[in-house]
Specification:
Number of strands: 0
Strand content: under 5%
CATH class of the domain at 64-232: Mainly Alpha
CATH topology of the domain at 64-232: MetI-like fold
Helix content: over 70%
Mean pLDDT: 88
CATH superfamily of the domain at 64-232: MetI-like
Distance between the termini: 49 Å
Order of helices and strands: HHHHHHHHHHH
CATH architecture of the domain at 64-232: Orthogonal Bundle
């Protein structure tokens, strides 16, 4: 049996430490959220129970946790849909060169390198100058799009750069209109990438703090609510909330991955049926 070199074990140990660094804090919060009723915010644990999870569903004096969750969920869905639609339209538009396309592209992705807090401040100032109300569904929505749209655009540009145009030509030869070609040929082919863009859009919005800090108005999103709780909550209820929101994020990711798997199986079955025909 061939012996593995020592460098393999060094790299494996380094990778293990890296994973521990990434997920250790999440694991620690998850463990501490199961403290007993008399438990505190640090180790050692004082009993094991679901007390703090039950406490989350009772009347809270620390803030509007579930209202913040509903707002983050609604905002995430709004950002997700907008990111997918605009990214697809931009990807289709940029397939052909047009005057100012390079300038427009760099303008669209510049927000990725600008500090998030400056984006939040700028959007808030614009709304104030225009006399518009700062609200999570308007100014908060706009500021988050400056974060999600560049990712969606970059993904769609990469997808369409390697898209085989012969599928579209075959559809047109069969008499399909431009809209029918997009609907029945292009969109089904790029559907897995659309799910990826949707996942990016939702998760980036759901977890975003800095770009929402000065644009959410009087009503907090969930990240802002959790940040506010860190200043006045001294019980493991905040850990229980962190555990539930983390599980929710993983559930969303799992749902998108399941959708990708189902879509892949469906495409494979259709391809198999077409081959038999």
């Amino acid at each position: 049996m061939e012996r593995r070199p020592r460098s393999f074990y060094v790299l494996a140990a380094f990778f293990g430490l890296f994973v521990l660094f990434l997920y250790g804090p999440i694991l620690t919060i998850g463990i501490l959220s199961f403290q007993g009723p008399q438990g505190g915010l640090t180790f050692p644990m004082n009993g094991v129970s679901l007390h703090w999870f039950r406490d989350l569903f009772e009347q809270q004096a620390v803030g509007d946790i579930w209202g913040a969750f509903r707002r983050s969920l609604a905002l995430g869905l709004m950002v997700m849909v907008t990111t997918v639609v605009v990214s697809v339209m931009a990807g289709l538009a940029f397939r052909k060169r047009f005057a100012g396309s390079a300038l427009l592209f760099y303008a669209a992705i510049t927000s990725l390198v600008i500090p998030s807090i400056l984006i939040s401040l700028g959007v808030g100032l614009i709304f104030n100058q225009l006399g518009l109300k700062i609200h999570w569904a308007t100014s908060g929505f706009g500021s988050q799009l400056t974060w999600t749209l560049p990712f969606g655009l970059l993904i769609m540009f990469a997808v369409f750069n390697r898209f085989d145009k012969s599928y579209e030509e075959a559809a047109r030869d069969q008499g399909a209109t431009s809209w029918q070609t997009i609907r029945h040929v292009v969109l089904p082919i790029i559907a897995p990438s659309l799910i990826g863009v949707a996942l990016f859009g939702f998760t980036l919005s759901y977890d975003e703090f800095a770009r929402t800090l000065l644009t959410a108005g009087s009503y907090n999103t969930l990240p802002l609510e959790i940040f506010g709780m860190t200043t006045n909550v001294t019980t493991p209820v905040i850990y229980a909330l962190g555990t539930l929101t983390t599980l929710f994020s993983f559930a969303i990711i799992a749902a998108f991955l399941l959708g990708l798997w189902i879509m892949g199986k469906r495409r494979a079955r259709l391809g198999s049926d077409a081959g038999k025909a």
